Amino acid sequence: MAETPSCTILVGSLRKDSINKAAADCASEYLKGRFTLYRPDLSGLPPFNQDVEDAGDPPAVADLKAAVLDSELILIFSPEYNYGIPGVLKNAVDWLSRPFRAGSLVGKAVGITSVTPGSRGGENTREQLLQTCGVLTERLYQVTLGIPNVLELDDGAIPELARSALRDWLGEVIEFSQNAPETNDF
Ligand SMILES: Cc1cc2nc3c(=O)[nH]c(=O)nc-3n(C[C@H](O)[C@H](O)[C@H](O)COP(=O)(O)O)c2cc1C
User: Fold this and answer.
1) Residue 43 to residues 1, 11, 38, 54, 59, Cα–Cα distance (Å)
2) Closest ligand 1 atom, CA of 83?
3) 20 to 30 A from 128, CA-CA: which of 1, 64, 75, 145?
4) Which of 169, 70, 162 has its CA nearest to residue 121?
5) pLDDT of 37-48, one tens digit each?
6) Mutational test site, ligand 1, from 17, 81, 83, max ligand atoms within 8 Å of CB
7) Whose CA is nearest to atom 6 of ligand 1?
């Protein structure tokens, strides 16, 4: 029997009651059984520093890279902070980008979601993540998912409308991850 594929889920909010974390929880629920799931804690990553990198990846960085390297699919759930990518997530992606042109994301299918209370579904953070991840993997799913107007959680979960949109998008991303060829023109 084929080995279960793995998926790493990165969440750009450290907040306990984060709506993006709640969306990642919903995705985990949907994916469990089909994927081995990794949910690395980004709060323990040191700020990227090339001197630290030169001395050897700290354990939290090594763990993050190991999860991503073992995964076929990487899913990002992130809020938008000041029209951009939250520092904690950008820091994680910067670590994953190393070594230059041979980072952990090379060849990985990547999907991007942003859940926001506002009406624009984190369009800036999604656009910036497309730009950043687009130089780190050739298998980036270009259709990002913005889930706007999520003002509160329902017993810890995103609303059913949002869950339904997320499930549909996850189906597309999984299909993409299984079929999108590696182009090697990177
Ligand atoms: C520092 C900061 C900056 C923010 N900037 C934006 C923004 O540019 N656009 C936006 O739609 N929401 C912005 N927000 C609101 C977040 O979308 C909102 O707090 C959201 O719930 C954060 O995601 P989380 O629940 O996953 O932690 C900002 C929030 C914070 C704390």
Assistant:
1) 36, 10, 15, 21, 13
2) 8
3) 64
4) 162
5) 999 999 999 999
6) 81
7) 81
Cα distance between residue 132 and residue 129, in whole Å: 5
For the chain, list the domains and their CATH numbers.
Answer: 6-179 (3.40.50.360)
The span from the CA of 183 to the CA of 124, in Å, is 27
Q: Is the dihedral of CA 119, 167, 182, 3 positive or negative?
A: positive
Dist. CA 147 → ligand 1 center (Å): 13
Residue 81 Cα to ligand 1 middle (Å): 5
SS3 18: coil
- Beta carbons within 8 Å of 4's beta carbon, 6+ residues apart: 34, 35, 36
Percent of the chain with pLDDT over 70: 97
CA distance to 19, 43, 124, 171, per residue, from 120 (Å) = 15, 26, 9, 23
Q: What is the pTM of this model?
A: 0.97
**How far apart are the CA of 101 and the centre of ligand 1, in A?**
31
Average model confidence (pLDDT) across the chain = 96
Distance 44 CA to ligand 1 centre (A): 21
